[in-house]
Amino acid sequence: MSRWWQEGVVYQVYPRSFQDANGDGVGDLAGVLSRLDYLSEVLGVDAVWLSPFYPSPMADFGYDVADYCGVDPLFGDLADFDRLLAECHRRGLRLIVDLVANHTSDRHPWFADSRASRLSPRRDWYAWSDPAPDGGPPNNWQSVFGGSAWEWDEATGQCYLHSFLAEQPDLNWRNPAAREAVYGVMRFWLDRGVDGFRIDVADFLMKDPARRDDLPPESAERPRSRAHPDLHGVFREMRSLLDGYSPPRLAVGEIHEDDLGVWASYYGEGDELHLPFNFSLLHAAWGAGEVRRRVEAVEAALPAPAWPNWVLGNHDEPRLASRVGAGAARAAAMLLLTLRGTPTLYYGDELGLPQATIPPERQQDPFGRRVPGRGRDGCRTPMLWDRGPSAGFCPPGVEPWLPLGPGAEERGVEAQLADPRSLLNLYRALLALRRASPSLHRGDYRALAVAPEGCFAYRRRAAGSPGFVVALNFTSTAGKVEGIAGRVALSTGMDRQGETAAGRLRLGPGEGVVVEERGP
Ligand code: NOJ
Questions:
Q1: Could you identify the atom of ligand 1 that is nearest to the CA of residue 64?
Q2: For residue range 353-393, what is the model confidence (pLDDT) as tens digits?
Q3: Among 47, 175, 414, 498, which is 20 to 30 Å from 93 by CA?
Q4: What's the DSSP call for residue 401?
């Protein structure tokens, strides 16, 4: 029997950028609440994943948490959170929150304690090491945001590990008390009723216990600064905590892992993560052959009961519409919502928001300030709602925290709802078709061998329900797929219906079509 997180579609809300209710130019929880009807009724998703809203100095926009059990005043307070959760549940929407478990803020009281003295009871909650004999960092581990992952602490004469910013010291997951403290945080939110967690950089939790140097990237060795096999024990503990709730709650893990065997191992034997995020298509060169190869590789890597998932955008990556091109964004939407597995849809991708160019004086992301060109502001611009000032993101006369992306007038929800063939209306139609069709939300997947070059076609079928064939043309020339008999249920242009002629489906340039097959 499948569960909500298998059949449903997850929508990621980046709270700073979704809706500003209190007029400070930054989105907030009351703003998200005011847009729930859009998510559940207009768009038709099943779950919301909310990026961090906890008290934070915002060195990494909330991924540096100073208090795991509160709400930053910028976003509201706990009462706002409880209201949001209740209103989600009233509409049948699930709410997943971010668990930033690898690191805290350097302002978190745990770190203040740990840093105060080598004898502090919480000293070992973080990863402290003596410097190398020459006074340099203890090893060669690099921060994802550039430079050494070690920061010298003058007061106690040791270095602490930070896999991200120096303001984000890594917790030591080998310390049982630190681990238990994070499990306490999980219980805090689960007891409030959240439906699960998206675990930030989940594969960073366990590192080489001997803290040996990383080997050069070309070496065949696994990294030592992350992804130690002891992770499996942590994931099993987390899973049993989540399974202890009724109904069991969901564990999604942020895992960037090129080795699909290692990635798939994080499902465990159905006793670790429900959904280790699958970023394979985020990094695909956008062509039929490459996309098909990646889909097949992911399907082949999955252990039998494991359920796939697909991601085409998030708050760390260049916008989908700019990566694949505005024309291809329609077929990309069809792919995301018809493959076998849970899709996670990033806010604004349903409008085709492009990657915005942010002028240097308005850049906000610390990563971009530190490593020019790596900034993530361009995919975090405000959600576009209507034709009013700031596209309805914040009240008139207020400047949004990031400028609006290009084409705000015609790209907003209001304008797109008025255009029957808009990208937003295509997403809505795809979501409705998926919801109404067991074959699409829980059926098997099989690639069709016969698709012509430049096209990718696959069949989705659940026992007792009509099957579907999805055919996507990645090229700018027309193509034909043979061996498909049925009725066009939806096309990316939203401009055709009827039966396929003599088992042959013609595809226009860049077109995608879902065909409902005849018979069960
Ligand atoms: C991954 C998050 O998605 C990203 O936004 C953040 O900067 C890092 N983890 C560090 O927490």
A1: 11
A2: 999 999 989 999 988 888 888 899 999 999 999 999 999 99
A3: 414
A4: S
Q: How far is the CA of 254 from the centre of ligand 1 (A)?
A: 9
Type of residue found at 65: V
Buried b (16+ CB within 10 A) or exposed e, 142-170: ebbbeebbbbeeeebebbbbbbbbbbbbb
Query: Can you tell me the distance from the alpha carbon of 436 to that of 516, in angstroms, rounded to the nearest whole number?
Result: 12
**Per-residue model confidence as pLDDT tens digits over 37-63:** 999 999 999 999 999 999 999 999 999
What domains appear along the chain, each with residue ranges and CATH number? Answer: 4-104+174-426 (3.20.20.80), 109-161 (3.90.400.10), 444-517 (2.60.40.1180)
C-alpha atoms less than 13 angstroms from C-alpha of 425 in its C-beta half-sphere: 14
Q: How far apart are CA 74 and CA 247, in angstroms?
A: 32
Considering only CA atoms, which of 14, 361, 390 is closest in space to residue 198? 14
145 CA closest ligand 1 atom index: 7
Q: Is 425 left (phi over 0), alpha (psi -120 to 50) or beta?
A: alpha
Report the nearest atom of ligand 1 relative to the CA of 163.
10
**316 in contact with ligand 1, CB cutoff 6 A:** yes
Among 53, 58, 60, 226, say which to mutate for ligand 1: greatest number of ligand atoms within 8 Å of CB.
60
Ligand 1 lined by 201 (C-beta under 6 Å): yes
Helix, strand, coil percentages for the chain (3-state, nearest 5): 30, 15, 50
